[in-house]
Specification:
The chain is built from 14 helices and 12 strands. The chain is of the alpha/beta class. It has 2 domains: 6-221 and 292-328, TIM Barrel (Alpha-Beta Barrel), CATH 3.20.20; 225-291, no CATH class. The strands form 2 sheets. Strands 1, 2, 3, 4, 5, 8, 9, 10, 11 and 12 form a 10-stranded parallel sheet that branches. Strands 6-7 form a two-stranded antiparallel sheet. Helix 2 (45-53) packs parallel to helix 3, helix 3 (72-85) packs across helix 5 (112-127) and helix 6 packs across helix 7.
């Protein structure tokens, strides 16, 4: 069975390099390219437009924008504009962000489930070319529509995928999302409870799990030398152990390790702190949370995620991007 593969880009490369990688991924049969927007480094929609402008068929998604910092009407207008550039190829991936970053910029993430429901509901309606009046706790719209003057008025085919980690958000995603962006640096076993929660949410809306696309971010470090690949991934794993321990705890990382790493680095962290803390992280943790090693090692680990509910791996490359793409070109899973 051929699995739709996707490429994930953050801020490790210049945008023009990312454009080249998007073209290369498309030429190798990849299904999508996703642009991150997790930290205050690179906004997602500008590189998304760049990727869309130099490709013809590959889908382009945000992985993921936060639900707090853009007004829902502006969010709908932004992704409507992207659809004008690449009709039918744009995916709106949206999430509830994370602390301490959100708190540091003055955003209180209270009632994220209610906020997400209101935002997804209204953004979808606007993209569907509806006139929206909504008086919610987080969203207030009074007869708002995407008021095209010169462009064709039409519903925009922009599916909404929710980046969920906790089980309550996962269940909400099953109820209202077109898809979920399953997180990275989680163990395949974590997926089992996530898929169960998605199914429970889908049942609330009279749907099944098969109605929800389930791409998953997978950190992928490929090198012919296994130890080199593990070392490339270790630094990133370490950073998340210290800065996003909620994800790590959900994946089964021992609290004792989280505490030790947390004593060395927090947010923001210097490169020196990450390197120092990485010496505390054993190989088995890196192997548990990433697809790292030789090309064959990486493919075997990605298959574990597929076996546990992932419908499309979104590969986050560490090291040689094109070598990683090559490792999964035409890959079929038995």
């Amino acid at each position: 069975m051929k699995i739709p593969m996707a490429l994930y880009l953050q801020d490790a490369h210049r945008i023009r390099e990312g454009m080249e990688f998007a073209q290369y991924a498309e030429s190798k049969g990849f299904d999508a390219v996703w642009q991150a927007e997790s930290r205050l480094v690179r906004e997602a929609t500008v590189p998304m437009a760049a990727f869309a402008s130099v490709t013809k068929n590959i889908k382009v998604g945000s992985g993921v924008v936060d639900c707090w910092s853009r007004n829902p009407a502006r969010l709908a207008a932004t992704f409507s504009t992207l659809d004008d550039l690449a009709p039918g190829r744009v995916i709106l991936g949206i999430g509830a962000w994370w602390d301490p970053l959100a708190a540091k910029v003055g955003i209180s993430r209270h009632k994220p489930l209610k906020a997400m429901r209101e935002i997804v509901t209204t953004v979808r309606a606007l993209l569907n070319n509806e006139t929206v009046t909504f008086n919610g706790e987080f969203v207030q719209l009074d007869g708002v529509e995407l008021d095209y003057v010169y462009q064709e008025r039409r519903p925009k085919n922009v599916p909404i995928y929710i980046g969920a980690t906790g089980m309550q958000m996962m269940e909400l995603t099953g109820e209202i999302g077109d898809g979920v962006v399953l997180n990275y640096l989680v163990s395949p076993e974590y997926n089992k409870q996530a898929i169960e929660a998605l199914g429970n949410g889908a049942a609330k809306a009279g749907r099944t799990l098969n109605d929800i696309d389930r791409p998953q971010l997978v950190v992928c470090s490929v090198h012919e030398d296994r130890h080199t690949a593990l070392d490339m991934a270790r630094l990133m794993v370490t950073q998340y152990l210290g800065q996003q321990p909620h994800i790590m705890k959900a994946s089964g990382v021992p609290q004792s390790l989280l505490d030790k790493v947390g004593e060395v680095l927090t947010w923001p962290a210097t490169h020196e702190q990450v390197v120092k803390a990485s010496k505390l992280v054993p190989d088995e943790i890196v192997e548990m949370l990433t697809a790292s090693g030789t090309p064959d090692d990486a493919r075997k680990k990605v298959k574990h995620y597929i076996d546990n509910g992932c419908t499309s791996p979104i590969l986050y490359p560490l090291g040689d991007v094109k070598a990683m793409i090559d490792a999964f070109e035409g890959w079929e899973v038995s």
